[in-house]
Design goal:
Elements (H helix, E strand, L loop, with lengths): L3 E3 L14 E5 L5 E2 L3 E5 L2 E5 L3 E2 L9 E7 L3 E8 L10 E8 L2 E6 L6 H4 L1 E5 L7 E14 L9 E4 L7 E2 L11 E7 L5 E8 L10 E2 L8 E5 L4 E5 L33 H8 L19 E4 L19 E4 L37
Parallel strand pairs: 2-4, 8-10, 17-19, 20-21
Antiparallel strand pairs: 1-7, 3-6, 4-5, 5-7, 8-12, 9-10, 9-11, 11-12, 12-16, 13-14, 13-15, 15-16, 18-19
Length: 353
């Protein structure tokens, strides 16, 4: 190891009665005796009493000798998962045991397994043993061959304790782990900077309660908060629209100016001649035999009828009819408003002042 600086003398002094024996990189499966020294997380430690599975950061069994100038923040935690947690695994604090937090593998597919993510294991940690977790800064001596140097790393939604270069999308949780600074099968490095993703209701200016399907987020100026809200017609300017089936005519108010037309009325109108100009002259040979007229400006109607005895009906609801002139007949007078029965061959004119 290079660039070491002595950071602390043994204090209180520990009397070592055996030789100081370098043991290389710390291993949780190795039994160490008093005086054994190990390298662990860019630092070196000496055992002050026999130990197996207790990380060098555990001051009951180890004393820090020296630390390199590498910047990182670590903490010690215990593995009670029932199996070994490998080096480079993403973990969260699942509880406490004695005076140490306990570890579990993080995974981005659940709230519990993602939002408490704390860091990456610096070394493999056996079950029921303590180990170092890098919570910020450089995690080294890892297998990062699956990642590209310089890539952003995210908590995996599919592999417990794993990482991915693909940012997870909802409903998986997006937990940023850090950057791969060296891609290597044994000596890879990751700059750890955990950024846990947030739920919407965890934002400081959002107040969510009693969530219901189809709700929206609406700003409330009186509290300066965004709140969940069930949308109403008034919210979108439709407060006067009945909240019923719009295709039902009973739900629409009819007036003298706006009303529905029945099929019967429609048929009558389609069969009628309704004119509002001063003079009408129509060849009614192809028209229906029933003439319904509701205007008030009619001055003349000309029927061209086939020979024979034909009965016609004229329904007139106007106010200006003074006479009806038939060929060879006497005017019928002002009171004719309902029915004209005519058995001649040609109706030559209807006129009024």
């Amino acid at each position: 190891m290079s660039d070491f600086k002595i950071v602390k003398l043994l204090d209180p002094a520990v009397q070592i009665t055996t030789n100081v024996t370098p043991k290389g990189v710390y291993s949780a499966s190795t039994t160490y005796g008093v005086g054994d020294t190990v390298s662990f997380g860019n630092s070196s430690y000496i055992a002050i009493q026999p130990t197996t599975g207790n990380a060098p950061t555990n001051t009951t069994y180890w004393q820090l000798l020296a630390s390199s100038s590498t910047n990182k923040l670590t903490t010690t935690a215990r593995n009670l998962t029932g199996s070994t947690i490998p080096a480079g695994a993403v973990v969260y604090f699942s509880g406490v045991n004695g005076n140490l937090p306990t570890l579990a593998l993080s995974q981005a597919n659940t709230e519990m397994g993602s939002t408490k993510t704390i860091g990456i294991t610096a070394v493999a940690i056996n079950n029921n043993a303590d180990g170092e977790v890098v919570v910020f800064g450089l995690a080294d001596s890892l297998n990062t061959s699956a990642f590209t140097a310089g890539s952003a790393l995210w908590l995996s939604p599919t592999v417990p304790g794993g990482m991915t270069m693909t940012k997870p999308s909802a409903p998986n949780h997006a937990v940023f782990i850090g950057f791969c600074t060296r891609s290597h099968p044994t000596d890879g490095t990751i700059e750890v900077k955990i950024q846990n993703g947030f739920e919407l209701e965890e934002l400081h200016n959002v107040a969510i309660s009693s969530i219901a399907n189809g709700q929206v987020i609406q700003y409330e100026s009186s509290t300066q908060l965004w709140k969940n809200h069930t949308l109403t017609k008034s919210d979108v300017g439709l407060g006067n629209v009945p909240n019923v089936d719009a295709t039902n005519p009973a739900n629409i108010v009819q007036t003298s100016s706006y009303r529905f037309v029945t099929d019967t009325e429609k048929a009558i109108w389609n069969a009628s001649v309704d004119e509002t100009f001063e003079t009408v002259s129509k060849n009614l040979k192809s028209y229906p035999y029933v003439l319904n007229y509701t205007g008030s400006q009619l001055t003349s109607i000309v029927y061209t009828l086939p020979a024979g005895s034909i009965t016609k009906t004229l329904n007139y609801a106007g106010t200006k009819l003074t006479s009806i002139v038939l060929s060879g007949s006497t005017p019928l007078g002002i009171n004719l408003t309902k029915t004209l029965t005519y058995s001649g061959s040609t109706l030559t004119g209807v006129s009024y002042a």
